[in-house]
Specification:
Layout (H helix, E strand, L loop, with lengths): L14 E5 L3 E6 L2 E6 L4 E2 L2 E2 L7 H15 L8 E3 L2 H7 L8 H4 L3 E5 L2 E2 L2 E8 L2 H10 L1 E2 L2 E2 L9 E7 L2 E2 L7 E2 L2 H8 L1 H23 L3 E13 L2 E5 L8 E5 H5 L10 H9 L13 H19 L1
Antiparallel strand pairs: 1-2, 2-3, 3-7, 4-5, 6-7, 8-15, 9-12, 9-13, 9-15, 10-11, 13-14, 15-16, 15-17
Helix pairs in contact: 1-9, 5-6
Length: 297
Amino acid sequence: MTETPTFQPGIPGLTLFRRGKVRDVYDLEDKLLLVASDRVSAFDFVMPEPVPGKGRVLTRLSSFWFRKTAALVPNHFLADDLKDVNAVLPGGVKLSPDVYGGRVMLARKARRLDVECVVRGYLAGSGWKEYEETGGVCGEALPAGLKPFSRLPRPIFTPAAKSDTGHDRNIDRTEFSRLIGPARARELEETSLRLYSSAASFLESKGLLLADTKFEFGLIEDRVIAIDEMLTPDSSRIWSAADLKSGRAPAAYDKQMLRDYLESSGWNKTPPAPHLPPNVVETLRARYEALAKAVLS
């Protein structure tokens, strides 16, 4: 289902806390309401065309992973059933199932840590580009002779500094530690690697490879919890294991094909973002749905 005119302007009676590239977040005092739109972004730009059903895929997958990993690290997830969400909304606000069903998540409010915790198990994306230039990624030295899509000797932690207005910036462990403190930095690195290992093992059982992913964390009092989204095709690179095993470039169940299209389109990555052809939108929609089916079946 594509977004309706009532979706984008906001929800009357609720206070908009933050509007991201994909999610609208509303303030419910001690809680947050996360609404995943069908917007799709690349290179820090939101594309003019939405991807039908994308927000529902993101919500289903994040809800699944928050539940599955709760024993590894606490998280902000409270509910994703619209009946439960409507029950706590103020002032008689009720969200329509046609517009909001399957795309809302009720979450604990936490103080966000302004870093992204990226774990890479394979060489791809900006990690591959940096490896070509320096022989490592984010200060982490890697063996010589690796190729695109190479599996790393072990998963590596490559943090980034968050930016709400521009591109998140890769940083090394020294800067990561300076930003949030040495003890907290060690905790987030260990937690991220633990989450990656658990998720990668599960995905391999589904015939999928977790090339890389990012986690975000916040604090409730002084306790670290996972927040935002988790292991979605927006925040991860997820590949076909069979393709890579056969020596083919792996099919990607994420938005890499959108990045590839934009790179080949001649767009100079300045505003306005280009319109997307219907076949690109449909391919992206199908890949997101295929990933959800594989993970949740």
